[in-house]
Amino acid sequence: KLERLWQEGISGADFFIAGIGSAIEIFGKYEKVMDYEGNIIRADKLLEFVREIVTDYAVRQILHNGIAGELSPLTRFYLLWRWTYQEAKVLFDNARKLAQSTGIDLTREWNKGFIIKDKEFIKVLGLQERDLACLRADTHRQAGLEDSRELIDVLHNVLLLWKEGNREDMKKVLSDSGFGGKDAFYRVAQAISETLQIDSKEKKLLDGFLSGKERLLSEIKEAYKQRMLF
Q1: 188: Cβ–Cβ under 8 A, 6 or more apart, which residues?
Q2: Helices 151-164 and 127-137, interaxial angle, to 10°?
Q3: pTM (2 decimals)?
Q4: What is the mean pLDDT of each run of 10 residues along the chain (230 residues)?
Q5: Residues 126 and 203 sit within 8 Å (Cβ to Cβ)
Q6: CB neighbours of 167 closer than 8 A, spacing ≥ 6?
């Protein structure tokens, strides 16, 4: 069913609604649903289980399969948010459901990094918005980027440095974080770009950065060889 929905071009929030609705329709045919041990599964647990299945399928499709299992819950959340809600603010309950399906407790993550709570809304900051935070604080460290080893934080840090033309620091961040030579890092960047509208500032920066990927990989590899010699 999920594959058919995907093939029909249904995406974003509509995909989740259709996928979950299809599962509810199937489960609704039975008086009760039990696990392998004979325990009755409550409706809320069924919904949670279905959301996880739909989420996992969507992540794999967005990434064209292959690396979904390598991603942290926060990376999966960011990727799915961009695919589902783009750059919009979303009511807390809808955001909570998406976060829960990726294994995140939203209340433990907001206002610490790229997830921001604003009254009853949740917003996921793009790198251009974190750039403003950096400017206000006059340092990347204040925006939670410099010391983080979370893929999205590293990606945002790298893109901000690329935007500034600070190539040496950008390569250092990639090398120190361990993401510089990892295909998953660049595939996530590409996948995020593909989810965004063509006029998105974040998309334009991602595409610009990715256009120099091969040269960058070559430089990182050469720098690594040089370090091994001394």
Answers
A1: 63, 67, 71, 75, 79, 151, 155
A2: 70
A3: 0.81
A4: 79 76 72 74 72 82 76 92 92 90 90 90 89 50 66 93 90 90 92 92 94 89 67
A5: no
A6: 161
Angstrom distance (rounded) from CA 228 to CA 218: 16
CB atoms within 10 A of CB 82: 23
Q: Taking a C-beta distance cutoff of 8 angstroms, is the pair 114, 152 a contact?
A: yes
Domain limits at 220?
127-229
Q: How far apart are CA 111 and CA 121, in angstroms?
A: 12
25-30-32 Cα angle (round to 5): 120
Of 199, 133, 137, 130, nearest to 158 (Cα)?
Answer: 130
The angle, 0 to 180 degrees and rounded to 10, between the axes of the packed helices 167-177 and 151-164 is: 170
Say which DSSP state 192 is in. H
Out of 124, 141, 165, a domain closes at 124
CA-CA-CA-CA dihedral for 65, 66, 68, 71, to nearest 10 = -140
- Helices first, then strands: H and E counts in the chain: 12, 3
Task: Give the residue ranges of DSSP H helices in 126-212.
Answer: 127-137, 151-164, 167-177, 183-195, 201-211
Contacts of 210 (CB under 8 A, 6+ apart): 186, 189, 190, 193
Helix, strand, coil shares of the chain, percent, nearest 5, are: 65, 5, 30
> What's the domain count of the chain?
2
CB atoms within 10 A of CB 177: 19
- Same-domain status, 115 and 27: yes
